[in-house]
């Protein structure tokens, strides 16, 4: 059987991961650490935060509001410690992970990169997290 036939039958791994993404919405109201621990998000977060894993991990355990949902598919939240603040979001439609890490008030990790457009749906959440960053970031969509 060729790849197209397997995709049509839903037998390839990405389809399995896709099926897990909507359950991330059930995390609303929990601490942001629960989003980071989710099997669909955690492995990506670890690889994306390479070199900053420890500080991201610590910040995710910090104080912050419960996870919220925006536009029915973005799950997002943030954590704050004395040393760092981290914003984490996950799109259940595309399985995209968004990370913004501020260390001692200065940006140190942007995913997507700082120069790339960020999803417009996240503008209010980023503004709440870091108004100074939201004012200079590009949001589209």
Description of the molecule:
- The chain is of the alpha+beta class.
- The chain has seven helices and seven strands.
- The strands form two sheets. It has a five-stranded antiparallel beta sheet, with helices on both faces. A two-stranded parallel sheet has the order 6-7.
- Strand 2 and strand 3 form a beta hairpin.
- The longest helix has 8 residues, at 13-20.
- It is globular.
- The N and C termini lie far apart (38 Å).
Helix content: 25-40%
Please state the structural category: alpha+beta
- Rg estimate, integer Å: 16 Å
Q: Terminal Cα separation, in Å? A: 38 Å
How do the strands of the widest beta sheet line up side by side?
1-2-3-4-5
Instruction: Estimate what percentage of residues fall within beta strands.
Output: 25-35%
| SSE pattern | HHHHHEEEEEEHHE
Count the strands?
Answer: 7
Number of helices: 7
Mean pLDDT: 86
Largest sheet: 5 strands, antiparallel
* Low-confidence sequence ranges: 1-19
Shape: globular
Summary of the model, kept short:
The protein is α+β, with helices and mostly antiparallel strands. The chain is built from 7 helices and 7 strands; from the N terminus they run αααααββββββααβ.
Keyphrases for this structure?
141 residues; alpha+beta; 5-stranded antiparallel sheet; two-stranded parallel ribbon; globular
List the helices and strands and how they pair.
Blueprint: H1 3-9, H2 13-20, H3 32-37, H4 42-48, H5 53-60, E1 68-70, E2 74-80, E3 84-91, E4 96-103, E5 106-111, E6 118-119, H6 123-129, H7 131-134, E7 139-140
């Amino acid at each position: 059987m060729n790849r197209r036939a397997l995709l049509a039958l839903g037998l390839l791994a990405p389809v399995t991961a896709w099926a897990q993404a909507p359950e991330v919405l059930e995390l609303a109201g929990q601490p942001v650490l629960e989003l980071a621990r989710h099997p669909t998000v955690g492995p990506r977060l670890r690889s994306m935060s390479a070199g900053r894993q420890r500080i991201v991990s610590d910040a995710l355990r910090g104080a912050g509001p419960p996870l919220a949902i925006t536009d029915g598919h973005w799950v997002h939240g943030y954590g704050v410690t004395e040393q760092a603040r981290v914003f984490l979001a996950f799109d259940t439609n595309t399985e995209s992970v968004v990370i913004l890490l501020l260390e001692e008030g200065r940006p140190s990790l942007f995913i997507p990169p700082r120069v790339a457009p960020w999803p417009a749906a996240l503008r209010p959440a980023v503004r709440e997290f870091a108004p100074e960053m939201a004012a200079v970031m590009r949001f589209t969509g």
